[in-house]
Specification:
Blueprint lengths: L2 H26 L17 H17 L2 H5 L13 E4 L2 E4 L16 H10 L1 E2 L3 E2 L6 H4 L4 H13 L11 E2 L9 H8 L16 H16 L3 H4 L17 E3 L2 E3 L4 H6 L4 H10 L1 E2 L2 E2 L5 H6 L6 H13 L30 H15 L25 H9 L4 E2 L5 E2 L11 H15 L8 H12 L2
Antiparallel strand pairs: 1-2, 2-5, 3-4, 6-7, 8-9, 10-11
Bound molecules: heme C (3 copies).
One heme C (HEC) binds next to helix 9, strand 7 and helix 11.
Length: about 450
């Protein structure tokens, strides 16, 4: 082919590319059609307004808006300023109080719907997907209306927003439109099958699904990501390393294997503590503004959905007691556990956690039913042992004493031996973690 022909083809390809980019930009910066308001918000009776406001607060709690929109200095829940560090740069939660200057005091309920469900702020401003609109996209219009009523009743906080500090090319905000065109879920949620035949158990699962996947946005941490950082919904809730921690597999089979049942899960979400463990790392903030303050009925629905799963419905109801956990792997015989791992455990850990991992009520956790050693990656285990945990209040009266960090006492070889001892003894995992892997995990944790 001669040069001129090639140039022509190249020009045609470039033009087609530009057209495609243009079309994607338009699609990704449109918020699609907005469902009509569920009620006439300008004509509310005082009682109706009160009802909506109470529901709005429930939505605010279940969606954990305060986790990202509260002030890190004053704690004011709507003031903004919380930093979110991502591989693409740092973003700050915004002021969502009714301040007319700094917050959303001039926003209509339609505006709030577009921001929460579609990631579009007024003035065709694309929000970064760190604001979890990819999860919230299925939120009902009635929930947004209730949230709007509640938000507008809160005191205005006069704190200006902090500009995002994204690295190039992510600093080009309109480029988010291209991501949206590819990754944002379809703007009209698929119509749900008519709930005509729905019985109580079906409704419970449906509510749980909505709370977990939509409002609770649990998949933002627990679902693996694709190469373009979208949630890989084909592997919804299958577990993911994020912010230097492993957010475990929450699918029913994996949960049952780690010894969970609905009652313990309800307790964990309400108080932060259960025989399977205590909330740490990225999970702990979920407790404070969200799960500890949710209605018991909603927590039950979440637990039911997580333990019974998507296909569940009533028909596939799972026995109330979890199946006896099967071994996760071919486990090396106990005798092969390195004697050094046991020596380290007895020397540093058994004083608090017991020789057999039985723990002590109110002062240390039991480790014989703890899930941390059961995860496929030992990342969280290594982190807790190195960094320790501070003394802290959980919720509903539960408190935890401090655990010291052992980074100084444990060279990589001792850490690997200790972790292997715990994984084989209580985790039903292979004891094959090497010192080199430990060093890598420490880098993952510290680079965060
Ligand atoms: C995981 C963190 C996170 C959660 C949870 C979250 N947001 Fe956001 N939100 C953000 C971030 C970060 C931004 C700023 C995004 C940007 O700069 O593009 C934002 C932006 C917004 C904006 C746009 C404000 C403006 O002035 O442009 C609104 C409105 C908003 N969020 C409301 C909410 C509401 C309501 C909830 C709960 C239903 C919520 N957010 C939950 C992180 C979060
Ligand atoms: C001084 C007592 C003490 C010692 C010594 C101690 N721990 Fe702990 N450990 C605790 C307490 C208390 C907690 C819960 C702290 C919290 O949640 O704030 C805890 C939490 C844990 C957890 C977290 C479980 C979860 O659910 O996330 C693991 C794993 C653990 N310890 C392992 C160890 C190992 C291994 C050692 C020895 C290297 C050790 N601990 C030494 C008191 C101790
Ligand atoms: C900001 C990230 C993040 C979000 C959002 C999040 N999680 Fe987690 N979750 C984690 C991490 C990290 C862990 C591991 C540490 C721990 O066990 O506390 C975890 C642990 C858990 C565990 C314990 C599992 C086990 O076997 O030990 C459960 C259950 C859980 N999350 C449920 C949820 C549910 C339900 C939601 C949504 C309402 C949610 N998580 C939202 C990060 C998150």
């Amino acid at each position: 082919m001669d040069k001129r022909k090639l140039t022509k083809i190249a020009a045609a390809v470039a033009a087609a590319g530009a057209l495609l980019l243009g079309a994607m930009y338009i699609a990704g910066s449109s918020s699609g059609s907005v469902p009509p308001a569920s009620v006439d918000l300008s004509q509310l009776s005082p009682e109706h307004k009160q009802q909506l406001s109470e529901r709005g607060l429930q939505v605010f709690r279940a969606a954990d808006c305060a986790a990202c929109h509260s002030s890190p200095t004053t704690g004011a829940e709507l003031a903004g300023g919380m930093a979110m560090v991502t591989p693409m740069g740092t973003l700050y939660g915004t002021n969502i109080s009714p301040s007319k200057e700094h917050g959303i005091g001039n926003w209509s309920a339609d505006d709030l719907y577009r921001a929460v469900a579609r990631g579009m702020a007024p003035g065709r401003k694309n929000l970064y997907p760190a604001m979890p609109y990819a999860s919230y996209h299925d939120i009902t219009r009635a929930d947004v209306d209730a949230l709007w009523v509640w938000l507008q009743q809160q005191p205005a906080v006069e704190v200006p927003n902090r500009a995002a500090e994204m690295h190039f090319p992510f600093s080009i905000r309109p480029a988010v439109a291209l991501w949206n065109a590819l990754e944002r879920p379809a703007s009209q949620p698929a119509p749900k099958a008519a709930p005509a035949a729905a019985n109580e158990a079906d409704l419970l699962i449906e509510r749980g699904r909505y709370l977990v996947n939509t409002l609770g946005h649990c998949g933002e941490c627990h679902t693996p990501r694709t190469a373009s950082f979208a949630m890989d919904l084909k592997q919804s809730l299958a577990g993911n390393v994020i912010e230097g921690a492993y957010a475990p597999d929450l699918r029913p089979e994996a949960m049952a294997q780690r010894g969970w049942n609905e009652g313990d899960l309800l307790r964990f979400m309400r108080t932060g503590l259960s025989p399977q463990g205590v909330m740490t790392m990225g999970m702990f903030p979920v407790l404070e503004h969200s799960s500890s303050q949710m209605d018991e009925a909603d927590l039950k629905a979440m637990a039911a959905y997580l333990m019974r799963g998507d296909k569940a419905g009533a028909a596939a109801a799972v026995p109330a007691v979890a199946a006896k956990p099967e071994p996760l792997q071919d486990v090396a015989p106990q005798t092969q556990v390195s004697a050094n791992g046991q020596r380290v455990y007895l020397g540093l850990c058994a004083g608090c956690h017991g020789v057999d991992g039985q723990g002590q009520p109110h002062s240390s956790l039991r480790l014989d039913s703890n899930t941390t050693a059961m995860f496929p990656t030992p990342l969280n285990l290594v982190r807790v042992i190195r960094e320790g945990l501070t003394e802290r209040d959980l919720a509903h009266g539960e408190r935890m004493q401090a655990m010291p960090g052992f980074a100084q006492q444990l060279p990589d070889q001792d850490m690997a031996d200790l972790v292997n001892y715990m994984r084989v003894r209580w985790g039903r995992q292979k004891g094959d973690v090497t010192p080199a892997q430990v060093a890598d995990l420490i880098k993952t944790a510290e680079s965060h």
